[in-house]
Amino acid sequence: MAKKRRRGGFNPALAILVALALAGAGFGLGWHFGVQSMRYKGDILLVNEQNQLPATYVPEGLVNLYQNRHSFRLASSDIYLTRETYEAAERMFHAAEEENVNGFIITSGYRSYERQGEVYAESEPGKAQRPGASEHQTGLAFDVTTETSNGFESTPQYAWLSQHAHEYGFIQRYPANKADETGISYEPWHYRYVGVEAAKRMHDTGMTLEAFLKKYR
Ligand SMILES: [Zn+2]
Question: Is the backbone of residue 169 left (phi > 0), alpha (psi -120 to 50) or beta?
Fold first, then answer.
């Protein structure tokens, strides 16, 4: 009797239906898919004043840098990036280290919509993006500095990144004199992961992400 009852409790057909329903719900509600239709250009997520993220957008697979990083330092223990971005950053800073360029300190990574709202409220007008318009909400961007920085752009670390960041899939997202395209004035400390192929093309042509996506995606 007990055996029969146990068998009755498990219905393979029902289990398959439940699994399919769950998979379907996950697929339909996946942030990646929800956002892709609106803001992805090709395979690259574009976030700026005209292309804002919803308040509910949280990237998948955020990695705590403090628990993982080897080749760079951190301004705090609660900085996160997507796994792919973190791994590319690790490779990049490791390569810099091999050339005796050390002392990179990541000061900021992923910021939630709410956190960006606080940053925006605390900042002088024009110094921070409004929530939804910040790349930091993607988990694909970080800010970096060094301990001795009087201005990151005058450091050897900055010079190294200018030459090599694209080899690891990063672009300097807000170059000097490109605010008419990006909407944001020079930020030598802000790097964005776009993948090696796109980063190389942008580096070689001097294009901003906006100009690149307009032309190629
Ligand atoms: Zn930034």
Answer: left
